[in-house]
Amino acid sequence: MTDALVFLTAALAALLLGKPGIGWLAGIRARQTIYAYAPETHRVKEGTPTMGGLLIMLGVAVGLAAWAGLTREPLVPILVIFAGAAWFALIGLLDDYWIRRWTGQRGLEWKQKLALQLIAGGVSIYVLWLAASGAAEPLLGSAEASGAQLPLTPATFALGVLWLVGWVNAFNLTDGLDGLAAGLTALAMLGVYAISTGQGSWVAYALMVAGGCVGYLWWNVHPARVFMGDTGSMFLGASFGLLTLRSLLHAPALQQWGAFALVGLVFAAEILSVVVQLSSVKLRGGKRIFRATPIHHHFELLGWAEPTIVMRFWLAGAIAAAGGVAISRW
């Protein structure tokens, strides 16, 4: 009952804050610019308000407040995940808005963005492990009873950073069509919730994010009135990465790694399509495998309508999430 109320609260908050939020974003001139390699059909989207990921974050924050009022569970486990994801959102905000206002440039260069992501990822994972193991109880004031079962070694730390930063960039690349990333995130978060139920109070965070995405979709479905920007996509990718890592600390079996990878299959396909395309161009003398990447652009250039691509990717995401849950319980 509490979980359902948290989901609904986050969804309604994001939905109701949408109209004034979009007006505020337009007022500060946070507007989308279209990259040169994007399909021509995207030119009409130039100037649409961006940084709409702030609406999702507000929905999550309201859901968190509702959850705190409805339960007596410790807040620290969820706050650690939310804070880590918010740090990535700040990197996205820097890229979406501040760099453009301060310097007039398009945004952060990819090396600068990656460096900031690695720093944020390293700190977030270390704090997550401290909170999960109980080692941070004197500092944070609360610990989880289950404890972290996966030791923090240089190898597991590096793997965790790679996992987290990989998902952040996968979600970032997926955000390219109206409603695509938000809808897929809602499905993936429901999958994470189903896999991780019973492991701790922090699992409720998955429903807060799913609810925030559902409320945001009211304003983001085709034709979108707002885009989430890097602010939103990095927040969602970090939320998924940190949530799944927290679950893997509790149950680090290879089966669980595979289950979460399957839940995020569509996001993984998006970033892998870019890697494969770039590798082909460099190793095969400029020859391409796809017409454009990320792969949703490939289908656009094949003549698929944008809503058709989004709906079919959502269907693939739903099947992948169900498959991940099935594998986790096999």
Question: Gist?
Answer:
This protein has 330 residues and is mainly alpha-helical. The protein is 71% helix and 0% strand.
Report on the structure:
Helix 1 packs antiparallel against helix 3 (53-70) and helix 5 packs parallel to helix 10 (229-250). The chain has helices at 2-16, 18-27, 53-70, 76-103, 110-133, 137-140, 154-174, 180-196, 204-220, 229-250, 254-263, 265-283, 295-301, 306-328. It contains 14 helices and no strands. The chain is 71% helix and 0% strand. It has one domain. It is an all-alpha fold and 330 residues long.
Ordered list of secondary-structure elements with their pairings:
Layout: H1 2-16, H2 18-27, H3 53-70, H4 76-103, H5 110-133, H6 137-140, H7 154-174, H8 180-196, H9 204-220, H10 229-250, H11 254-263, H12 265-283, H13 295-301, H14 306-328
